[in-house]
Amino acid sequence: MRRTRHGRRRARAAALALAALALLAAGCGKEGSPPVKGPKPGALPVYHVDTGFQLEDSPTWRAAKKRGHLVVGAKEDQPYLGEKDPATGNYSGFDIEIARMMSASLGFDPKTIAFRTIASANRETALQNGQIDYYVGTYTINDLRKKQVGFAGPYYIAGQSLLVRADETDINGPEDLAGKRVCSAAGSTPLQRIQREYPKAIAVAYDTYSICVDNLLTLQVDAVTTDDTILMGFAAKAPDELKVVGKPFSKEPYGIGVPRSDNALRFALDDALVAHEKNGDWKKAYDATLGLSGVPAPQPPPVDRYPAG
Ligand code: GLU
Fold first, then answer.
1. Which of 128, 151, 185, 235 can pair with 141 through a Cys bridge, CB separation 3.0 to 4.6 Å?
2. What pLDDT sits at residue 309?
């Protein structure tokens, strides 16, 4: 089959992108590029397990106590936030550390947590069905979601941003998205914002951001949009192929999702967050995880502790 010049260039770009994808999947950098960064041994805090802790008012806590461990929902494909090692099944990242701190404060050894990967679109149902006790995974607190679930926190504030291929010159902010294919996760706030505020962009939705990034590298989409935290992690892992552009254009306060009616659990998690921010665990965990994608630890935001209702 004869290829046009454009076709050849596309094919070459796709081959390069596939090679980059293989590197991403293998979790290693190109020869000469910096080695993959990950928490240094001993850099992660060891959380004090509050063995005498009681929370009889919380049905979620009582069921977990009977079971002997917590079941926590998380992401498994978000660099430095929530990642699952396919070889060992271990989860790591900032959100995972937040989940572990909370477990220790609730009286459960963090080593015993059973993590379950739950995509953005399925978080509310997972909490409503009792599939998980709580959820930690770049989960924006907002009023609409508060009708379905409860939120402890916030424990971090992210902002929506854009990820493009390193050689992209046309897209520098959301106003450049008209006619461009922009990928985000189904059920996420960034997807909703693009559809609502930038209707000229062609929104493409998949279950996860890693699928969006695959599509970006193979030229199926022109940009990926979600929180800067997530995008910077992907860019840090493939700096020759990807870059984050423009300024964040929203505020995404991250909360710990809990069953809506379990106010006792929500307040206990708020207390636990404050305690781990005060004793230095929060900063140490941040520095060893999300901090590796390049942003120094900010001051943690004040927890909201909105009234039961
Ligand atoms: N924080 C945003 C949200 O909760 C985007 C990240 C995500 O999908 O987890 O929708």
1. 151
2. 78
